[in-house]
Amino acid sequence: MAPEQLDQFNFYAALLIGLLSSGHCIVMCGGVVSVLSANIPLHQNHGSMRFAYLLSYNLGRILSYCMAGALLGYSFSYFGVKSHIIFQAMHLLSGLMLILIGLYIGRWLNAISHIEQLGKSLWKVLAPVAKRLIPFKSPLSALPFGLVWGWLPCGLVYSTLTWSAASGTALDGAAIMLGFGLGTLPTMITVGFVSSKLKSLLQNNFVRSISAMIIIGFGLNILYLTLLD
C-alpha cells in the first residue's frame, strides 16, 4: 500500500491520536479552561449552560485547527503537487513527527517541545486579542475565544500539522486536523467538570505507554510505506 492509499484512513488515525494524546491537552489547555470557567456569568456557570460554554470554546479551537490544516494542505499541494520527491519528503516528515509525538507521550523523549518555539512570536500578537474577548455574555461568545486559543503554541498540534501538509489537498489537510481536534474533544469537555480524576487516568504510566506505542507504530508504518513506494 502506497502512502497515498493511507489518505482514506487519515481522519480516523488522527481521531485516535487526538484521543490518545489527551493527557497533554490537559496540561496545555487546562489553564485555559480554568480561565474560561472563571469568566462564565455566575448565573450560567452550572450544568447544561456550563457545557454549552465549553462546547462553544472547543468548537472554536477545532475550527482554528481545521483552518491551519487546510492552509498547509493547500500550500504544499500548490507548490509540491508535481514533485514526487517533495511529496515523499513530507510523508517521511509526518511519519517522523508522529514517532516524536509517541515518544513524548510515553515520556521517553521530549523533542517536540522545541517545535513550540516556532509559534511563540505569533502568540504574542494573538494573546492580547484573546484577553479582550472575556468576560463572556453567552455561550456563542466563547467561540471566538476558542478560535484564538486554538493557535496556542503546542508541539502536538504542530506535529500533526506536518501530516496535514503531506495530505496533498486543503480538504484532506482540514480533515486530519478535524479528526485530531474531535479526538481531544471528550477530554477537553470533561476536564471542565472532573479534571483531577481524568488527569490521573490519562497520566497513568500504563495508559501513556500503550498510547505512545500505538502512535509510534502508526508513524513507523508511514515511514515504511513511504520508503517502500
Explain what the structure shows:
This protein has 229 residues and is mainly alpha-helical. 75% of the residues lie in helices and 0% in strands. It has helices at residues 10-20, 22-38, 47-80, 84-105, 120-131, 142-149, 155-165, 170-202, 205-228. Helix 4 packs antiparallel against helix 7. The protein is globular, with a radius of gyration of 18 Å. The chain starts with 9 loop residues before the first helix and ends with a helix. The model is unreliable at 1-5 (pLDDT under 50).
- Which value, in Å, is the CA radius of gyration? 18 Å
Which consecutive residue ranges, at least 5 long each, have pLDDT under 50? 1-5
Number of strands: 0
Order of helices and strands: HHHHHHHHH
| Shape assignment | globular
What does this entry show, briefly?
The chain has 229 residues and is mainly alpha-helical. It contains 9 helices and no strands.
Lay out the secondary structure.
Blueprint: H1 10-20, H2 22-38, H3 47-80, H4 84-105, H5 120-131, H6 142-149, H7 155-165, H8 170-202, H9 205-228
Helix pairs in contact: 1-8, 2-8, 3-6, 3-7, 3-8, 4-7, 4-9, 5-6, 7-8
Top keywords for this entry?
mainly alpha; 229 residues
